[in-house]
Design a protein that fits this description.
single chain; 379 residues; alpha/beta; nine-stranded mixed β-sheet; three-stranded antiparallel β-sheet; 13 helices; 40% helix; 20% strand
Length: 379
């Protein structure tokens, strides 16, 4: 083990790039795409990387504000640091941007710990249950064209050729349009391809229930974020009044934010995001809590290779629910929508011909950051 894991510096990096073709989800258009990476260095020269979900221009100043509370501390004291940061802003930041900033710092500390000990993060977390996971392709967003089913079908053909056997369709364009699009997309991709649907909380409970019942025969693996994240009662209505398994949680934060969802069983599948919910430390606590209630956990993943690597290490240790000889392990969300920063700044794992991804085995997160690319995208 290294002689000194004292934290010397914390540097947030705001990265941004224009998109060649804009795309939209149900709440907004993307014309630029960014990331906020956090670099934590120790006195003995170890560099750990973390990433925050959310607008980079807003999370980076919070990391900069928190940095003096962390510099000089032992990077191995992840739990103590997490508690100190959360408690310092507890009156003002129990969810959202503050927790996203803490997530980035926490991920970087796990990266440092693994490098200092010479082992991958999944071994720090207790050792892997699996060393590869099946990935599903996220994408299928709206473009500034009218032939929606045509370009989505073309995208599906491309993803299938890359090895993906499960695709996630974005909806939220209006109830009638969504029903027609989902039915058309299922017919286009065929019965042998897995299908998930995500409307990014575009519906209220009555509309979500109507949608779920209208596409119930389309063999949909889960219905993601059917209603706004604050509407726990609405989630419960959707869960009980239509047959598709309900997923949600990417816009929930910390163990306390997930506690009500778990206690009330408001979803079938919990989707904490490691770069949003409080980092690796907190997502592991959420997954353990969910396991005690018999609930599936399938992390949301949206970001660069840093978030992806952190998610893979967690996917290695999240228990099968329920366990058995023929388990249903969690899936890896692999964003395939345009993201120049992701593609050039960080190393990305390969997808096998069977749509599977290996868990990194190098010390720490096992992700490489290209500093030349980092400089090109600095906003």
């Amino acid at each position: 083990m290294s002689n000194s894991t004292t934290i010397r510096a914390i540097t947030p990096h705001i990265l941004m790039a224009d998109l060649a073709e804009p795309f939209a989800y149900s709440q907004a258009w993307y014309r630029r795409r960014g990331a906020m990476l956090v670099e934590v260095t120790t006195e003995d020269g170890i560099t750990g990387w973390g990433e925050a979900f959310g607008p980079p221009e807003l999370t980076a100043p919070i990391v900069a504000w928190l940095a003096p509370l962390v510099v000089g501390q032992d990077a191995m004291a992840r739990e103590a640091i997490w508690q100190a940061l959360y408690n310092r802003l507890r009156d003002h930041g129990q969810r959202g941007l503050v927790v996203e900033a803490i997530s980035a710092i926490d991920i970087a500390l796990w990266d440092i710990a693994g490098q200092a000990l010479g082992i991958p993060v999944h071994r720090l977390l207790g050792g892997p249950l699996r060393m590869e996971v099946e990935a599903y392709a996220t994408g299928f967003y709206r473009r500034e064209r009218d032939d929606h089913l045509r370009y989505l079908t073309e995208e599906a053909e491309q993803r299938r050729a890359e090895g993906f056997r499960i695709l996630k369709l974005k909806t939220g364009w209006g109830l009638k349009q969504d029903i027609a699009l989902t039915r058309g997309f299922r017919a286009a991709i065929g019965d042998d391809c897995g299908l998930l649907v995500d409307c990014n909380h575009a519906y209220d409970a009555p509309a979500a229930i109507a949608f779920g019942n209208a596409v119930a025969d389309c063999d949909i693996g889960w219905f993601e974020e059917p209603v706004p994240p604050e509407d726990i009662a609405g989630y419960l209505e959707v869960k009980t009044r239509q047959p598709i398994p309900v997923a949600g949680g990417e816009a929930s934060f910390t163990r306390w934010g997930f506690a009500e969802m778990i206690a009330r069983r408001s979803v079938d599948i919990l989707q904490p995001d490691v770069a949003a919910c409080g980092g690796i430390s907190e997502l592991k606590k959420i997954a353990d809590m969910a396991s005690a209630f018999g609930m599936r956990v399938n992390p949301h993943v949206w970001g660069t290779g840093v978030t992806l690597a952190a998610s893979l290490h967690l996917l290695a240790v999240i228990p099968d629910n329920p366990p058995g000889l023929f388990p249903r392990p969690p899936l890896l969300e692999l964003d395939r929508s345009p993201h120049p920063v992701r593609d050039e700044v960080t190393s990305m794992p390969a997808v096998s011909a069977e749509g599977r991804v290996r868990v990194p085995e190098a010390p720490g997160l096992g992700v490489q950051v290209d500093r030349a690319a980092l400089k090109r995208f600095v906003a």
